[in-house]
Amino acid sequence: MSKDEQLKKVLSDYASERLSVNETKKLEHLILKYPAGDSWDWKDNVYREAMKDRIKAGIEAQVAKKTKIRWMSIRAAAAIAAALLCFFVFLYLYLSQIQSVTYYPIAQAKHYVSDEVLLIGPHGKQLQLGASASFADLKEKLALPNSTTSVAEDSVIIKVPSQKQFDLTLEDGTKVWLNAGATFKFPTTFTKQTTRTVSLDGEGYFEVTSDKKHPFRVIAAGTEVKVTGTKFNVQAFAEEHLIKTSLMEGIVTFYMDHNAYKLAPGLEVIADTKGKEVRSQAFDRDNLLAWKEGYFVFDNMELVDVMKTVSRWYNISVVSNSPVRNKKIGGTFPNNVPLSDFLKDLTILSGVKFKINGKEVQIIN
Asked: How far apart are the C-alpha atoms of 177 and 172, rounded to whole Å?
């Protein structure tokens, strides 16, 4: 244990009134030999205030006892008493000057089992994948039986970690692109089902093979997108309550709470699953699908929403030292750069400062 850690430990015991006579002497020794000068981190304000109260009491006690020390020389007694008094006064003033900082959470990092795309088979078998695969590839990797003998309820799960993307071709030829942070679940066979049903948590782009007899359904956060053959993008993040479905080609029907909403190409529906509201609007196709090409495109987007996107890609937590309001960002950024470089560019563009602390980014307003 370092000298600084020893001092912190003894002070902690002092604040909790756990010091014995010998430990008090140890405190005196440490104060005399290793005076404090650096700032410390306190686990919470309650603990800091308790420490401050104990130190204040210690100051008063030292002043009262200073003239009663008889068991050692006057010089030694005066030196220790003065050192203790100065130290406690210094620490009390230091604690009194510390400003309590409240951080406002914006996004939370996730825990990923693997840094690579993870495939989980029907019986729990796990395999790492590259950047793309077909159903035939997965079937071979998992040693799945032929579709004629497969159980309709059997399903496969794909988990995409941060800074990764995955392209998948399903059994029916439907193509799916999954963005970082997505979890995608689909059956091992479509042949025994009246509908081709998959589920998504995260962002995915779909090019669905047309089959009017077997509609294609995407289940996402309690909502449903139903098509027979079309191209569309879905954003559905479990930690948020907004589901966005954007239609490129064809027709889709979006369902929430047994209500149906039909979309035409170039329109997207945004559903608030918490507020139970649904609205539609036009969107820019190139901007929406820039993630497939390796870019962030922010078109006058609120900084909070920008940082949520950044959090999902880099897998970081984001907090702010004050509420972030009415700060909009526009621009195109490659997503293959280090986080520090990206934040430098964002600072130049927005004027907002960022501080990286391990897996957390602090917005300094």
From this structure: 15
